[in-house]
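Exercise 7.
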Amino acid sequence: MRIGLIGASRIAPVAVIAPAAARPDVSVTAVAARDPTRAAEFANRYGVSSVSESYAALVQRDDVDVVYCALPAHGHPSVCELALAAGKAVLMEKPFAADADSARGMMDSAARAGRPLIEAFHYRFHGQFERALDLVRSGALGRIRRADGVFDVAIPRSAGEFRWSQGPDGGALMDLGCYVIHALRTLLGSEPLLTGVDADMEGDIDARLTAELKFGDVRASAACSMIRPFFARLRLEGETGTMTLHDFVAPQRNGRLVLETASGCFAEVAEGPSTYAAQLEHLVQVWRGDALPITGGADAVANMIAIDACREAARRKGGPHA
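Solution. The predicted structure, written as tokens, is:
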């Protein structure tokens, strides 16, 4: 499987290039960026053999089977349309799109083309999250009563940092909270109703945001921040047990699943490949026709619907400490 990179991004070396280099059946064959000089420097630094002069040229290459897009979210629909129309499968970085309407259009494009379009929620493909999902579905926690998730990363206010930019791509929710909402939706198996939001806003940018949600009769909160030190955790409280996932986004960094029941407290340290290696394995299986995508499609649209509701509520409240 041959991958072409759209965007000379900071995440591509970790998310795609490194796990591909560890496999004999995957290669990264080309990169394209808005700045050709940057693309050439990126290719030289990371050993990518070819540079395409444009996104349109890259998706037409005969030596590209899958397109990985790591542009800011507002650029996803146009790349998606180009790649799918060229018959390529697509791995699209999270968040899937700038809003739910754009996500619907991308889903429709994939359906028309008959090609896979996967959202790169890498945590979702790791064995530890699958284990957590199995525990919830098996009834090990009993009926879920409360769920909480948080993902904080201190993001510097450097020049050109799109997460601090005013517009559709900026804010903690789009970059960090999208993980929390997606994980809660997946574990609880339903869609949320927004009941409240608290945020520190800078113009249209949420530097910190906490959403209060209801998944049926389960109350939940989803928190994220670009102004707090790193912290990532999911916690589900049920009638017969509590489950906590420490560092759920990247469990390969000594992530732990802790299960507390009447029988005692059990802790499992994450094992197996990295989330990015697991994501690449899923991509290969989907591309070969051996599996169906578990992200993207209607799941991606539903995630953006929840994000849109949270952002709109935060902006309506406004103020420095909404």
